[in-house]
Each structure stands twice: as C-alpha cells, then as structure tokens.
Amino acid sequence: MLNRRKTLLIGLSNPNFSQRFFRRRLRTKANHGYDDVSRRNIARKHGDEEEDKEKIHLLKSRGQHLLTNPRILDSIVRSSNVKSDDTVLEIGPGTGNLTFKLLEAASKVVAIELDKRMIEILRKRADERGVQDRLDIIYGDALKTNFPEFNLVVANIPYGISSPLLAKLVFGVKTNPYRSATLLLQKEFARRLLAKPGDSEFNRLAVNITMFAEVEFVMDVSKRDFVPPPKVDSSVVKIYPKSKIPDIDLEEWCAFTRTCFSKKNKTLGATFKQKRKLMELMKLSKFEGRSVDSDDDGDDLGSGTGISLLRGKIVGILESGGFLDKRPSKMPNDDLLQLLSLFNEAGIYFHDRANAKGICDAAFDACDCLL
Ligand SMILES: C[S@@+](CC[C@H](N)C(=O)[O-])C[C@H]1O[C@@H](n2cnc3c(N)ncnc32)[C@H](O)[C@@H]1O
C-alpha cells in the first residue's frame, strides 16, 4: 500500500497552488502528512477531479522533494543568467516546476530524469504548454548517462548524488564545456563547498572542486519551500568552470589530497611520518632507496630500510618547501599543488599510475575524494 504521508497529487507541483496549500497546512499543525480529506480538498481546489487519478508517490530514496515556491524558482532562473539561445541541462526535472520556468528564458532544456512517472507528467505538461519541441527528456541515471550538448546547467538535484554529480560536471568540463552550473544543494554540503582555508568546514571537497571551478553563494532556501519538506535546509550555489584548467593528473591530485586531509588539522610532518602512510607510498613510489629491502614490512624504521629512506626523503621535501609544520586545513590550493609537484619530482606518487584512466573515468572514480 502506498505510504499516504508521501502521496501527493500532481496539483501540488503547481507552485502557486502548492504554496497556498502548504502555508495552510503549516498553520494548522506541524504535520507534513497528506490525509484523504486534504487530498480531496486539493483536487477540488485545483478545479479538476481528473487530478485525483494523478497521484504520485514521492520517493525519499530518489530525493523527490519538489521545489514549489515560485519566488525561489524565479530567483534561481534569474541568478542563472539564462540567455535566449542557451541550451540548459537540468538534472532531475521531476514534474517540471523549474523546467518550465527555464523554458521561458532559454532556447532549449535537456532534462535527465530517472523516474518514468515524472517523465510522463513532464511530457503531458510540456504538451499542454506547447513547449514539447524545446524540451528533450532523457530517461536515465544522470550519473551513468552521457550528457547531451548543453552550455548551462540549472538544477534542483537529488541530494544523494551531489558528490558524484559535481565530480562529473566539474572534472568533466573538458568534455562538456559550459558557462556555469546553478545548483540547489543541501546547505551543509554547500557550506563545505564554499569554505576557504582556515574555515572550520574547509576540506578536500572544497580543495578538489575549487581546483577546477569558482564557487559562488547565491541564496539559502528553507525546507518549507519544498513539497514534501526535506529534513535539511538548502542553498543555491553557482559554479563557474575555470577558463584555464590546471594540467594535473586528476587521480594523482585526488589521492594526494586524500592523504593530506586524512587528518586535516595535523601538521604535514606528523601525517607523513605515520608508518601506514609510508607503507602505502612505498608501494606506489619509485625512488633510489626503494629496492633496499623488498620484503620490508616497516616494523623497523631504522636507517637503511626502504621505508626509513622514504621517510627521510619526505621530511627533506617538507622541510625544504617550508611545509613541515603546515596544516592542510589552512593551506591554499597553490601550496598543495607546489607540494605535490615536489613529491612527484622526487619520484613519490600517491596513485597507482599503472592503472591510470582517462580524465572522464577518473572523474567518476575521483568522486569519492569529494566526500
Ligand atoms: C529534488 S527532486 C527535484 C524535482 C524538480 N526539479 C523540482 O525542483 O521540483 C529530484 C529529481 O531527480 C530525480 N532523480 C533522482 N536521482 C536521479 C538520477 N540519478 N538521475 C536523474 N534524475 C534523478 C528524481 O526522480 C526527482 O524527480
């Protein structure tokens, strides 16, 4: 049986209507369920008994929280600077609240949606509005689907795929160039993305994304602006891919930042003295001392073993660059980049280059480095 708490009439996807309905529900009780009476009322109020047949069970597992506040929808479109010749990529159009606003400004929208029921509604609404020729709907998982051509991204995405989707968009910008991506994200995730060195939220998500893109805060969005309301608040951010993408090995960079940020408040000297870290690097690196003792298990860090030579080399690099007492949580990207190049020049690597992939595959794999 359908869970009635999340069964909404499609009438709710009409922003003007659902805002009125939602405000009334909030006045009566902090109850976000939808009972039979409310549903009948919704159908009557919407003036279409046919609506009653169009119930849709919104799935939490697919992040189906529809943005229904028209003021917020308008602000998102405005802040995206959509131009009349733009082709906008929208991930997760749902029932089309944002899609149809975008179509008022753009030449075309290409929308990738995982849920066939949403697509059915979207198609019907597009036909009713006569915009079907300007809306391409792709049925599929946005993480697994090859992106079509587009030059702008605007989306209220399912928060569960924020990291890999961001990786696909930001790291894949060479394959899919675009002007900017305006995304509605979980507020906490957005804060981490916007964090600067020294901020308590600063982490490798910010480091890795800002290597390739500038991130700008647009606005906060209350959970009350969605139907059904999610548990968390949200923020809109705008991401601008950098015009000059640094020429780095993405997998190597992500593996390096993963190591540095494993204990982001520790000094680099302390992080790189850990036996476990040295053992990992020993397997991946190629430097003079490596072959000293091939079955070196690192138990004895005395002089002469491969591991102790590696440790000496790393400490030397950290000292010479002035990095020994630096903490990753306070380091700007340029410093991290400089340190990685010093390591690599010395034959010390963080990723298995024998299994290196192209940038697109790497983008998918690297997304775990955003978490
Ligand atoms: C947060 S809702 C947004 C709906 C609509 N854009 C709005 O603002 O009202 C997210 C939508 O993404 C869809 N979705 C979830 N996972 C997806 C995926 N991996 N690929 C494409 N769409 C997905 C859901 O079915 C849902 O329609």
UniProtKB/TrEMBL annotation:
<dbReference type="InterPro" id="IPR011530">
    <property type="entry name" value="rRNA_adenine_dimethylase"/>
</dbReference>
<dbReference type="GO" id="GO:0000179">
    <property type="term" value="F:rRNA (adenine-N6,N6-)-dimethyltransferase activity"/>
</dbReference>
<keyword id="KW-0694">RNA-binding</keyword>
<feature type="binding site">
    <location>
        <position position="113"/>
    </location>
    <ligand>
        <name>S-adenosyl-L-methionine</name>
    </ligand>
</feature>
<keyword id="KW-0808">Transferase</keyword>
<dbReference type="InterPro" id="IPR029063">
    <property type="entry name" value="SAM-dependent_MTases_sf"/>
</dbReference>
<protein>
    <recommendedName>
        <fullName>rRNA adenine N(6)-methyltransferase</fullName>
        <ecNumber>2.1.1.-</ecNumber>
    </recommendedName>
</protein>
<keyword id="KW-0698">rRNA processing</keyword>
<feature type="binding site">
    <location>
        <position position="65"/>
    </location>
    <ligand>
        <name>S-adenosyl-L-methionine</name>
    </ligand>
</feature>
<dbReference type="InterPro" id="IPR020598">
    <property type="entry name" value="rRNA_Ade_methylase_Trfase_N"/>
</dbReference>
<feature type="binding site">
    <location>
        <position position="67"/>
    </location>
    <ligand>
        <name>S-adenosyl-L-methionine</name>
    </ligand>
</feature>
<dbReference type="InterPro" id="IPR001737">
    <property type="entry name" value="KsgA/Erm"/>
</dbReference>
<dbReference type="Pfam" id="PF00398">
    <property type="entry name" value="RrnaAD"/>
</dbReference>
<feature type="binding site">
    <location>
        <position position="156"/>
    </location>
    <ligand>
        <name>S-adenosyl-L-methionine</name>
    </ligand>
</feature>
<feature type="binding site">
    <location>
        <position position="92"/>
    </location>
    <ligand>
        <name>S-adenosyl-L-methionine</name>
    </ligand>
</feature>
<keyword id="KW-0489">Methyltransferase</keyword>
<feature type="binding site">
    <location>
        <position position="141"/>
    </location>
    <ligand>
        <name>S-adenosyl-L-methionine</name>
    </ligand>
</feature>
<comment type="similarity">
    <text>Belongs to the class I-like SAM-binding methyltransferase superfamily. rRNA adenine N(6)-methyltransferase family.</text>
</comment>
<dbReference type="GO" id="GO:0003723">
    <property type="term" value="F:RNA binding"/>
</dbReference>
<dbReference type="InterPro" id="IPR020596">
    <property type="entry name" value="rRNA_Ade_Mease_Trfase_CS"/>
</dbReference>
<dbReference type="GO" id="GO:0005739">
    <property type="term" value="C:mitochondrion"/>
</dbReference>
<feature type="domain" description="Ribosomal RNA adenine methylase transferase N-terminal">
    <location>
        <begin position="72"/>
        <end position="243"/>
    </location>
</feature>
<keyword id="KW-0949">S-adenosyl-L-methionine</keyword>
